Amino acid sequence: MIKLKLESDLRIQGLEMNRRLGMKIERVIFCSMLTALALAGARRVEAQPFTNALYTLLEGSTITDECLICGRPPIIRPLRGTFELALLEEKFPFSRYRLTNIAWQAEGDAPFSYDVTGAGEYRIGGEVAVMQNMALDVQVNGQKRNFTNDSPLVERTFPLIDVSLTETQNTVFQFFSLRLVAAPVREIWFSTTGGFTSAFNNVRGGPGDLLSASGRIVKSASSLVAALGIPASDSGPGIDAVDIGPGGEVLFSFDQNQVSPVLGPIQHGDLVSNRGRMVQRNQALLAEFGVMPVVPDVGLDAVHVKDDGEVLFSISSNIFSERLGLTLQRGDLLSNRGTIVARNALLLGRFHPTTSKDFGLDALYVWPNGEVWFSTEEGFQDQELGPIGAGDLLSNQGLIVFRNLELMSAFAPLEDVSSFGLDALYIVTDFTPPAPPPRFTRVNRGLRSISLQWDGTGKVFQLLKASQVNAPFTPLSGLMPDQLFIDADVGTEAGAGFYRLRQW
């Protein structure tokens, strides 16, 4: 189910805040300072497979430029960018969607660089076999072009979209074709194995920082460990697994043992929180497997906590399960309920490694539809895709989602390395169940700033701002797991401002 973005809007004019109610896609909530920031109701979306989402083009998306009569080699360029997909109609057995705000780019030397803008429609469904149809009405470098898909066959599980399209016009001098591989991704958050220096203001990132592929540090190492009382330094401590819990709580493990003045000894296989609590000891994660004798710690390389409390994870060292009579391997996806969810070979089942072995499981995100995105501890040679690095982001559907250096490209790292590694992973997506609406709990106005605090069960938040209620709201903050933001750009006088809070 795709959740409707639930937003809270807040107007501040001096020390006065008026309560209003409006509706766009989501219910807009205005809170009143004079009524103790009372929370208005919010609309819940009933069960349906999809409503709307921002999509991102992944590795494998391309645009091909051919001249059908001049004989020049086809020009093939990687295509990147975003679009929005909104449900138009759901009539069994098909669902129909609208593509809007298409903004795709393919870099290259002139004249072989391309900008694609426009809209389209997408239809998917079927009673016996799942079929798809896509039609695009777009402009390529300002020229009108229409595309339709070559085959209706569906090879990937929705909401992942993988479709090849060709032009409908008979343009023999310049004929385009597209391959679109896309997923409902707003941002990718991750950590690296090693540190790096960004070309932008010489910002230094370390293995303990939670990064965004948009080119910013979501949570620094020092902020993650502050509540644990552990000092952060350039050399560590590093993050070895990460997930985001309700209310934006960051759950993570360390890449080596630590000693916390708050919790005492922390094993590198323990799951802890940036709020200073022990979420789960490594031994508790493994308890249902009946490991005998009980081992001190086998590490925690990847983690994903499901909404029902089940913890999916991987370990650093192989260990024998007495209850299952099997060896738990470092590349297996395990459950704290005592089951092997997927062997490493199954995760890589749609890849074709030239050697058969366990390549480890170093980062993990499990989609609501069961698709798994992950990285391996060791790289390997694929018979069809070529070399795959240990820091590349993969899908168990047999796709390279992003190469490691592309994930890092927005930081423009100065280091000349082939991979920075991928130790932890979280996906910010619209493809999540709806959460109850957030509410503002405190607003403090200073001389030149306004501090806003809220409460919500969402995992990721974003604050937007507008000068008038009917004016466009623009992002004031990046996507963040925080429940506090200080608007430092309000001037010395009490100017009017409207705030909108989004959550995922």
In short:
With 504 residues, the chain is mostly beta strands. The chain has four helices and 43 strands.
Number of DSSP helices? 4
Mean pLDDT: 88
Strand content: 35-45%
Number of domains: 3
Largest sheet: 8 strands, antiparallel, barrel
Distance between the termini: 12 Å
Uncertain stretches of 5 or more adjacent residues: 1-9, 11-49
- Can you count the beta strands? 43
Structural class by secondary-structure content: mainly beta
Strand order of the largest sheet: 4-7-8-9-10-11-12-13
> What general form does the structure show?
globular
DSSP helix fraction: under 10%
Q: Say what oligomer this is.
A: single chain
Rounded to an integer, what's the Rg over CA atoms?
24 Å
List keywords for this structure.
globular, mainly beta, six-stranded mixed beta sheet, Immunoglobulin-like, 43% strand, 4% helix, 504 residues, 3 domains, eight-stranded antiparallel barrel, disordered N terminus
Question: What would you say this structure looks like, in words?
Answer:
The protein is mostly beta strands. The protein has three domains: 7-45 and 435-503, Immunoglobulin-like; 52-183; 187-428, no CATH class. Helix content is 4%, strand content 43%. The chain has four helices and 43 strands. An eight-stranded antiparallel barrel has the order 4-7-8-9-10-11-12-13. A six-stranded mixed sheet has the order 2-3-1-43-40-41, with no helix packed on it. Residues 1-9 and 11-49 have low confidence and may be disordered.
